[in-house]
Design a protein that fits this description.
The protein is an alpha/beta fold and about 450 residues long. It folds into 2 domains: about 180 residues, Aspartate Aminotransferase, domain 1, CATH 3.90.1150; about 250 residues, Type I PLP-dependent aspartate aminotransferase-like (Major domain) (Aspartate Aminotransferase, domain 2, 3-Layer(aba) Sandwich), CATH 3.40.640.10. The protein is about 35% helix and about 15% strand. Bound molecules: pyridoxal-5'-phosphate.
Length: about 450
């Protein structure tokens, strides 16, 4: 074990979630004084699992180290970008080179072309691309483009899919009905989501009836081709191709949000794995290699509607930043080495099977969804196919598992509804260690 410690140690007397070590407690207290809730992105605050977040100070390969030097096998990977693991030397070298030459000009630079060329070559549906700074910017801009290109207003999204925090997309379903969007955040005016429609994931019938009613007004369907923000939820057979056919029949654009799946499931993302070509694709996370990059791209005829060529405006001071181009390109180049995705597949299958077996041994209801190196564990019998079924999970059970694993030196995502990521840096030994820790943790949970 990286961090061996008896289960009872470091645990409050009433069995409450264990707190991290003293340095993290102090660091979080300092952060809370000046940062809202102590964080810059809500899920980092551990609200879903309780306790105080661990402050990380270092990462190397598949292992992260906290302020007190405690080590954890990391299955968050910066929420997806670090598919090579932490501090990959190739990425480091590419970044260092940029740092000696200048890291921001606000002019065209060749790094942008190189990254765009790589993405255009790898992702089947992308002919031209626009680089931005985050996944949020990518989806927000893609729906503007879809609306500008089609000259229609309605955007369709699925309940439980997360596309960043743009107003029009911060909507959840009203009890699975095909209703007008209801904002899921304060500060989003009803008018901003008036043209957003929400349907249940994996429900082609719901999509069909929406198109029957409103098809001529729909600019596009925006979807995570494998959902990763309600846990990991794969598309059912025929779902994505069914959406493709509906969009074609009604002149709407199919927009894949591959911010998570892009370069995660393969060089060509989910669209290559499932053989369905969207009109527009949103990317982020891995294409920046851990620095802030987003992108959206598609057929040139659509992309040409963008400024400066066309009438749809979108811009960015930091867009195509040289440092981020270099880390992104180095990451993509490393993913072109032979055997990379086979290795991810094997390691992830081993992890998923090991976790499921550990839960069976413990006699706990547990369901594992996996597509490539995206692994979702749900505290329930399953199957989990959409937001409604994902919501049946025992989130308290997951919170217990999270903390029990943390004590055993394994860093899982701090929410039942986030996906675990396996990286190329995870060794067989580390995965075996993780499974052993899970067996131990789950039997502790049963004993409680
Ligand atoms: C992470 C994510 C986003 C948002 O990206 P940010 O860089 O956090 O703005 C959008 N869509 C999906 C599918 C994501 O996983």
């Amino acid at each position: 074990m990286l961090f061996a410690m008896s289960a009872s140690q470091n645990k409050t007397s009433n069995g409450d979630p264990v707190v991290p070590t003293q340095s993290s407690l102090e660091a979080f207290a300092a952060a809370e004084r000046v940062l809202v809730g102590g964080v810059n992105s809500p899920v980092r605050a551990f609200g879903a699992v309780g306790g105080v977040p661990v402050f990380l100070a270092r990462g190397q390969g598949a292992v992260v180290t906290d302020l007190d030097g405690r080590r954890y096998i990391d299955y968050v990977g910066a929420w997806g970008p670090l598919i090579l693991g932490h501090c990959d030397e190739r990425v480091q070298a590419a970044a260092s080179k940029v740092l000696t030459k200048g890291w921001s000009f606000g002019t065209p630079t060749e790094g942008e072309t190189r990254l765009a060329e790589a993405i255009v070559a790898d992702v089947p549906s992308i002919e031209q691309i626009r680089l931005v700074n985050s996944g949020t910017e990518a989806t927000m801009s893609a729906i503007r483009l879809a609306r500008g290109y089609t000259r229609r207003d309605l955007i369709v999204k699925c309940a439980g899919c997360y596309h960043g925090h743009a107003d029009a997309l911060l909507v959840q379903a009203g009890s699975g009905a095909l209703t007008f969007g209801v904002p899921s955040s304060a500060g989003v005016p009803a008018g901003a989501v008036m043209d957003t429609r929400v349907i249940p994931y994996n429900d082609l019938t719901a999509a069909r009836s929406l198109f029957e009613k409103d098809g001529s007004r729909i600019a596009g369907v925006l979807i995570e081709p494998v959902a990763g923000n309600m846990g990991c939820v794969p598309p059912t057979e025929g779902y994505l191709s069914g959406l493709r056919a509906l969009c074609d029949a009604h002149g709407a654009l199919l927009i894949f949000d591959e911010v998570m799946t892009g370069y995660r499931l393969g060089l060509g993302g989910a669209q290559e794995v499932f053989g369905v070509r969207p009109d527009l694709t949103c990317l982020g996370k891995i294409i920046g290699g851990g620095l802030p990059v987003g992108a959206y791209g598609g057929r040139a005829t659509i992309m040409e509607s963008l400024s400066p060529v066309g009438p749809v405006y979108q811009a960015g001071t930091m867009a195509g930043n040289p440092l981020a181009m270099a880390t992104g390109l180095a990451t993509i180049e490393a993913l072109h080495e032979p055997g990379v995705y086979e290795q991810l597949e094997e390691a992830s299958a081993h992890l998923a099977e090991g976790l499921a077996a550990a839960a069976r041994e413990a006699g706990l209801p547990f369901c594992v969804n996996r597509v490539g190196s995206m692994v979702g564990v749900f505290f329930q019998d399953g199957p989990v196919t959409d937001l409604d079924t994902a919501s049946l999970s025992d989130t308290q059970g997951y919170a217990r598992l999270f903390h029990a694993m943390l004590r055993r030196g394994v860093y899982l995502p701090p929410s039942q509804f986030e996906t675990m990521f396996v990286s190329l840096a995870h060794s067989d030994a580390q995965i075996d260690e993780t499974i052993a820790a899970a067996r131990d943790a789950l039997s502790e949970i049963v004993a409680e």
